[in-house]
Amino acid sequence: MITPRRATWFELFGDLVFAAAIGQLTRLVGAHPTLESIAAAAGLFVPVWWTWVLYAVQANRTDRDTAAHRLIAMAGWAGVIAMAMCADGVTGSAGAAAGFVGGYLWARAGVAALYAWDARGGTALQPVLRAYVRGSLFSGAAWLGGLILVHGAPRYLVWTAAMICELLLPLVAGRSIARVSHEAEHLRERFGAFTIMVLGESVLGFTGGLTHAPLTPAAALTGIAAFGLTACLWWTYFNAGGTRPGAHAALNRGGKLLHAYTFGHLPLQLGLALTGATIGIAVAGGSAHLDITAAACLLGGVIIFLAASALTRAAFLGFGEGVVVRRLLTAALLLSLLPLAPHVPFTAVLVVLTAVLAVSATLEAPAYRIEESVGQRVDGD
Predict the structure, then answer these.
(1) 57-79 pLDDT per residue, tens
(2) 207 Cβ contact partners less than 8 Å away, ≥ 6 residues apart
């Protein structure tokens, strides 16, 4: 029996760098969320997330942890640190915008250097390196062009177009990179680790909120509900980690399922980040009411998370599968409750969210027991 590959200590150390960047982005939402702050945090989340994916996938493809790889990766992570440092001023400071873009391009160059190092001597990684370098040159020109040549809203449109092109690159270059194998279990573990990082912002949010909240029973109840909501989000994600028996082999071969799994995590983890950014406000606010923007950020994050996790699971099991249907129905229920959220206390919103997710997780439990039973029989065969 082959032992599945696990994440290395070095990869987990690198996650700390990205955790700092995610923390800076969630703080962009601010004590009083606005559409502008939410859009900025969501927009900047994408290049940070994508940078993490690039490093995670590169490590998955090469399965090496040498001194050279560590040094190259750490040099690239310096760009992620620059992104974290400059994130809060991108929309208002030319210097911060330049620092964020420069950090992003430097971090991408680190991935290219890792591929170049591993592609020496003519390996299957050379097509991946060529595709990655071509895509990086194009996107780099777009990012720098947006930084230097345009300002205001047009700049963000140029950057958005550049980001979309980058996300499409694996789909366009699918054939040239299909010959490189993937370790499905390692990828699943890595995406799970990133999800833990994002959920950590929820924990920081409600614990930080409790330090600023008055010591009242209402504040205690709000803190308990916030922890319960975070725990339910964790439970929901990691229960959803099961896919049909044999799906791991399909992920190893790449293709549509691998793309669905990877890109399905972008809205899923973005939704968690938005919810985590707002939980601290809810706890610190005690019995105050959410405004419509904060309510949309809090509930909307959970709705996006549920819908994205359902659609990702549907790629493996179909839209008629029970858990998929329940997730989509739960998301629709929360969407219908969104107009009511500004009219009830923070605490009540958190309690309702926690209760809905707890009931949803309870109803999903039989499906997971069946999957585990089937998976054990398949492994035994």
Answers:
(1) 999 888 678 899 999 999 999 99
(2) none
Which residue from 280, 261, 278 is spatially nearest to 194, judged by alpha carbons?
261
pTM of the model: 0.91
Closest C-alpha among 332, 342, 353 to residue 293: 342
In this structure, are residues 283 and 205 in contact, taking their beta carbons and an 8 Å threshold? Answer: yes
Please give the pLDDT value at position 183: 81
331, 357 in Cβ contact below 8 A?
Answer: no
- pLDDT tens-digit readout, 273-298: 999 988 877 776 655 788 888 889 99
Six-digit token string for 223 = 């803190």
Report the distance separating Cα 348 and Cα 113, nearest Å. 51
**Within 13 Å and on the Cβ side, how many CA atoms surround 182?**
27
What lies within 8 Å, CB to CB, of 232 at 6+ separation is 354, 357, 358, 361
Phi then psi for residue 280, to 5 deg, are -60, -40
CA 75 to the chain's CA centroid: 23
Please tell me the distance from the alpha carbon of residue 222 to that of residue 210, in angstroms, as a whole number.
Answer: 9
Cα(91)–Cα(98) distance, integer angstroms: 11
Helix (H) or strand (E) holding 37: helix 35-62
Q: What is the tens place of the pLDDT at every residue in 183-203?
A: 888 888 899 999 999 999 889
Q: Which of 120, 169, 116, 119 is nearest to 140 (CA)?
A: 169
Identify the pLDDT of residue 164: 92
Q: To which residue do tokens 């990702």 refer?
A: 312
Overall size of the chain counted in residues: 381
- Helix spans in 213-255 (H): 217-239, 247-252
Residue 153 pLDDT: 85
